[in-house]
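Task: sequence design from structure.
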């Protein structure tokens, strides 16, 4: 059977069709899954089951033979304990392994609701603070993905998910000293250090948001010790460069081993539980956080901390909505009681007159985030729109944002998420640092963002001349003529993009990938991006109804593991 992918443009999963043609790769995958289920019913050994999964990975050309062998061993316990305890429709597993070209999997999850108190306060009109008030300068570091095995001169196009580590490259196929574009490579430790040095000398922030994804993308061969080593080294360097700055971290989906594996607290068996990671970051983060914030970190990787008298920072473990976290297939109802806890925290803050900034990794409106979690979180932001003054996420490696709105009839903007660009180059992106200027500490502070900036490393110059120069790519005031960044002004920005594609092309599209790749955005691409801007709620088929998006189902099924 040929497993050559036919590409994806139209979907009919029930019949394994792709634009009316048989999607051989997906059909072959479903045959493997059905065979796997037969093996399970016959009480086959774990070695037989993992052997079949490895063979499927190789035959379906999901990865090369070496990566397939390692990745299935890496996920052995999770496959055996989770997936094989469930009677899953083959489409679910093929969707996870191959992507949306195999169609939308059946919804096996029961929708659930977290209890949210009524009596929502009527939002007061937001008034921009006067010039000259105190401000806070904040740096967001996201998706640093430091590769401790990065090797200058190695092969950049190695045929595996992560390159720039082995072999000897020739001509343009050589890994640069400071990093590599046009290749699936993460950054060397020296580039991470250089970014911290630049931030400490030139930006001089008041605080840092560190929103997850520290280890490299060699997800097929990562041990718990590897992940701990990456977290320890990168955290120690932040402490070295910023000994007197408060840092507020969040977990990313790459911090665990295996990747995306975040069992809820109820999974307590030692070789399956995630307590090793939670307790380790509890220890590491204690250098920045007070003792009263640590208990929930050790329990489930989330926390709240009081930054000032009227500002509280909440960091969520958004891997509890990750649709590649297969532990949630056993029970996805508010893992770790995190959203219930969030409601409690926001209720207290509302009563106390305290504003809240929310940090996380996976943007909750993306299809990566499970529907029930996403919709509940959306409702929470609606209810507490006067309390939550900022949301800062990462994960996609791109520079964009996602709006949230109240329910009908007025459908006004209630919030939005900044989605920060990555420090890693993976893939074909210049190393980026995001900087915000917030309304600072004063009696009438809103703590809302007044301005955002994106700084880029000139990687070509760094590699050619061994000179590291960080340049301001853009700031929101100059590029968008925005006086500050609140839900209403961000909604107005979205409307400008919708009304003027030329403005969209010259600004948003250019900045989203830092002009990498240098390609135009056709009409369908344009509509996809407009839809993405207003998709603060995962898998809502009505959210982009006014955009006339072609093949809308592909937008909501798009699959990217960052």
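Answer:
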């Amino acid at each position: 059977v040929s497993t050559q992918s036919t590409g994806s443009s139209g979907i009919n999963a029930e019949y394994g069709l792709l634009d009316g043609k048989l999607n051989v790769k997906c059909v072959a995958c479903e045959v493997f899954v059905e065979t796997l289920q037969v093996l399970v019913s016959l009480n086959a050994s774990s070695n037989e089951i993992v052997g079949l999964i490895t063979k499927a990975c190789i035959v379906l050309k999901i990865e090369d033979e070496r990566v397939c062998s390692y990745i299935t061993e890496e996920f052995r316990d999770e496959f055996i304990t989770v997936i094989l305890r469930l009677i899953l429709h083959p489409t679910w597993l093929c969707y996870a392994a191959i992507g949306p070209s195999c169609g939308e999997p059946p919804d096996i999850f029961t929708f659930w609701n977290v209890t949210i108190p009524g009596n929502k306060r009527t939002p007061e009109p937001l008034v921009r603070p006067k010039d000259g008030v105190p401000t806070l300068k904040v740096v967001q570091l996201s998706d640093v993905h430091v590769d401790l095995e990065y090797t200058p001169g190695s092969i950049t196009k190695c045929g595996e998910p992560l390159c720039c580590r082995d072999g000897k490259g020739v001509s343009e196929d050589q890994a640069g000293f400071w990093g590599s574009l046009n290749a699936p490579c993460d950054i060397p430790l020296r580039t991470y250090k250089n970014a911290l040095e630049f931030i400490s000398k030139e930006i001089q922030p008041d605080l840092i948001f560190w929103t997850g994804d520290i280890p490299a993308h060699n997800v097929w061969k990562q041990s718990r010790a590897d992940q701990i080593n990456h977290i320890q080294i990168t955290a120690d360097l932040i402490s070295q460069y910023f000994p007197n700055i408060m840092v507020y971290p969040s977990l990313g989906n790459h911090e665990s081993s295996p990747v995306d594996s975040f069992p809820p607290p109820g999974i307590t068996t030692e070789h399956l539980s995630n307590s090793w990671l939670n307790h380790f970051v509890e220890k590491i983060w204690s250098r920045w956080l007070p003792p009263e914030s640590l208990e929930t970190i050790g329990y489930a990787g989330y926390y709240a901390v009081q930054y000032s008298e009227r500002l509280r920072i909440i960091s969520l473990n958004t891997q509890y909505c990750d649709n590649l976290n297969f532990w949630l297939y056993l029970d996805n109802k508010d893992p770790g009681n995190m959203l219930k806890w969030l409601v409690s925290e926001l209720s207290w803050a509302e009563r106390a007159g305290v504003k809240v900034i929310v940090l996380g990794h996976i943007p909750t409106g993306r299809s990566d985030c499970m529907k029930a979690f996403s919709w509940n979180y959306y409702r929470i932001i609606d209810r507490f729109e006067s309390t939550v003054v900022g949301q800062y996420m990462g994960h996609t490696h791109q520079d964009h944002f996602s709006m949230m709105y109240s329910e009908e009839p007025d459908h006004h903007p209630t919030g939005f998420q900044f989605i920060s660009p990555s420090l890693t180059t993976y893939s074909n992106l210049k190393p980026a640092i995001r900087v915000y200027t917030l309304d600072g500490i004063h009696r009438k502070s809103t703590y809302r963002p007044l301005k955002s900036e994106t700084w880029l490393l000139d990687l070509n110059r760094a590699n050619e001349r061994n000179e590291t120069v960080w340049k301001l790519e853009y700031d929101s005031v100059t590029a968008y003529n925005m006086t500050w960044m609140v839900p209403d002004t961000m909604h107005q920005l979205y409307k400008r993009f919708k009304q003027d594609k030329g403005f969209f092309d010259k600004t948003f599209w250019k900045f989203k990938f830092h002009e990498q790749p240098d390609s135009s955005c056709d009409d369908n691409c344009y509509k996809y991006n407009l839809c993405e801007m207003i998709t603060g709620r995962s898998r809502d088929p009505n959210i982009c109804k006014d955009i006339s998006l072609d093949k809308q189902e592909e937008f909501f099924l798009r699959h990217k593991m960052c």
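The longest helix spans residues 24-41.
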